[in-house]
């Protein structure tokens, strides 16, 4: 499936523009992670783009989120590895299964850090990603009251991928800054 078809599929199921932008940000981060880790950037990018395709269908219920995504992605012929990564970015729906594959960990950490980076941009006077510095995101990572719903332990899965927090943040921020026009930030 190419990106244009995947984006149309996402928009079939996701109407909230902020959620679409989150998926676009996740796509950018996953493509950058794939390049860094010598993985398939197109495959990882599609996973980032489609990972929350069922979020509105499951209304954010962590016990159901990604179960509908699995069905949708299978029906649309997406590769099993991508489907598995999408499923495992939300371990809560899968009866004790844990992320073990680098692709699973990259998707979980990559999509999660987008929330922290976006929240950081939104407290800047100009509300622009281009103004955000890696050090600002890392500093806010340590303040658990800031963007309190962002699960820092998932972001720290970057370390299992061989990236420390600063390297991961720099990579993710750079990817999102490159996509800033599409993200509206």
């Amino acid at each position: 499936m190419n990106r244009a078809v995947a984006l149309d599929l996402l928009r079939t199921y996701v109407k909230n523009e902020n959620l679409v932008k989150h998926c676009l940000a996740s796509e950018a981060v996953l493509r950058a992670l794939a390049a860094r880790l010598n993985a398939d950037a197109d495959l990882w990018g599609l996973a980032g783009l489609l990972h929350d395709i069922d979020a509105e269908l499951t209304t954010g219920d962590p016990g159901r989120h990604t179960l509908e995504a699995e069905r949708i992605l299978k029906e649309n012929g997406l590769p099993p590895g991508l489907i598995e990564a999408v499923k495992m970015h939300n371990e809560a729906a899968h009866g004790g299964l844990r992320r073990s594959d680098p692709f699973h960990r990259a998707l979980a950490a990559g999509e999660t850090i987008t929330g922290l980076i976006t929240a950081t941009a939104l407290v800047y006077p100009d509300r622009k990603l281009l103004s955000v510095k890696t050090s600002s995101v890392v500093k806010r990572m340590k303040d658990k009251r800031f963007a309190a719903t962002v699960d820092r332990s998932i972001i720290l899965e970057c370390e299992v991928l061989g990236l420390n927090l600063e390297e991961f943040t720099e990579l993710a921020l750079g990817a999102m800054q490159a996509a800033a026009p599409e993200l509206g930030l």
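Residues 3-183 form a domain with the Hypothetical protein af1432 fold (CATH 1.10.3210). The longest helix spans residues 102-123.
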